[in-house]
Design goal:
By secondary structure, the chain is mostly helical. Among the domains are: 53-281 and 313-414, Na+/H+ antiporter like fold; 481-598, no CATH class. Helix content is 77%, strand content 0%. The chain is built from 28 helices and no strands. It is elongated, with a radius of gyration of 33 Å.
Length: 656
Amino acid sequence: MEVVYIIVALLLAIVISDILSKVFPKVPVIFFQVIIGVLISYLPFFEVFELNPELFMIIIIKPLIFSEAQKFSMDELKKYFNPIVSLSVPLVIVTVFVTVILINLIFPNIPIFTIFILASMVIPTNSGVIKSISENLQFPKDALHILEGESLFNDSIGILMFDLALSASIANTFHLHESIFEFLYVILGGLIVGIILGFIISHFRYWIVKNNFENASMMVIIQIITPFVVYLIAEEYIHVSGILAVIISGMVHGYERPILNLKSTKLQVISDSTWNVINYVLDGLVALMLGISLPEVIINISVYNLKEFRNLILISVLVYLVVAFLRFLWVTLQPNIFRENEEESISKSINGLIYALSGVRGTITLVIAFSIPIITDTGKVFLFREELIFIAAMVILISLITPTIVFPLIIPKKDENDNIYDFNEIRKKMINHTIFEMENNNKYKGDYSLTIALKILRDQLMFLEDEYTQRGNREEIEKILDETTKVRIKATEELVNQNKISKNVGIFYKAYLMHLNKKDIVSALVKLKIWRAKRKLKVSSNDYKSDKDKFIEEFLIAQEHSCKAALSYLNDNINNNNYASISIVIEYYQKKLENNIDEFKENSVIEDVKTCLGDIFQIENTFVQDYLENGLISPTLANELIEQISYDELIYYKSI
């Protein structure tokens, strides 16, 4: 039962930390997750909680890295290949050796292999945190793409070097030539295996889609198990870098995914949503684990005297400063690589400082730290485990705090024009624009399908506008019902004049409408009056025993035509001021059509509504594109709007 409590507590902690990050947007969410992790570590059922490093490594790191890889564009890799490789390979090697040499000189008592483990732990970077920190700043145009690519490949290089250092530490021996050969073998092997398996799995998925064997849930399951399958084959059977193979297969998967998703919008939406949830949960779990583990780590190192504790803090600061300084030098000494866009107005030193502080450590560093075994394969306790986790945690916190403070001081805020609209505001403008365009489209004049479609849009506005959340006014509803009754009577007279129903049915139906007036909705006697009206209908229909079916058929024609006329009238007269009241009356007439004539069950009407929705989504997409091209919204906001439109398309098409 404790396992259930732990899972619920962790998921609830992720949600609470996310809410707090929205309340305090300037504070990265990882801070809240770490703090909450510390707090929940004192809950009773966490006393029996024990982290399995190997299981943690497998469950967390594989899907996280695969997800990052499939999101990274191959076009971006080609465009920023030089700076990405420069940061991911030579700089990493230089950073590791300089860090090891410097710390060994200052703290000669620390085993050299332990320093190598520490240096490799802080290699992986986290570009996601930089996105949140720089959201309202004029961050260099191409820097984020370069940082994303660097983060992706740093993960694999860092994990690979960590594995080599950990193995050397456990064996207490190191052979340079063998290690270099092994390093190259596992890297090249990982690249080749990743490419081959990536294309095999992608083509398998394409074969499933081509032969119509797929459903969205099955395809998502294939995506989820892909990183584990690739890692298992690469690592256990071919003995190459499983992490690198997962990254490359993820990039191949991301390259092939648009082709596969052309056939199914539903697959694309469900796939993206599933991976978003997976990333959301796994990222949160890693940070929470840091917080949960910190009290125990601190207790374990509390046996040290004050001087030794200060040394751990000093090592943490020193490691961060060395890594940041080397990044600064690396970027400033190669301006042609990292400043290809000559329009950038920032100076060379500021650009170098931005790259230096953007080397934020996060999820992968924590995963690596936690994956250090408590007991080695030889049965011995792994020394310095708590110290390494503590130093990793300190480096992460320092790397998070520093850019959060410094970036607003060296990077100007975005111009007001860059943030003219927030997401909800631009959605309101988009929906109102779409309603206007559809109402003025002669193609749908008086069409019942338009009423249904526009009701969907106005329901969306109800959740975006405060004034739309008010309850309908009783007197206003009664007045609207009076007006729609007149419209329905006029529509019935038109049917009689056009000889679509008989005069007697027309007279009866008008009397029926006068009886079923506004009190149908607001009166406490509604059920009694409906019963009386139906009783009159039955008596009247008995007068037409010779052609009772025809009478009922004409009555239903009058019912359908008059309700649609009323809906058309309401649709033409609805506005922001009367929306709450009119929407109630619209709902009333739609229910009458559904209950009395099963209008929604007729295929022709369903197809008309879908056609109308298709035009609506096209208008919305065009609106977003126009605003993006005119510089009124940012590419990020445009992507969010397009994603929301895709969700709406999936949901509403499925619900009709």
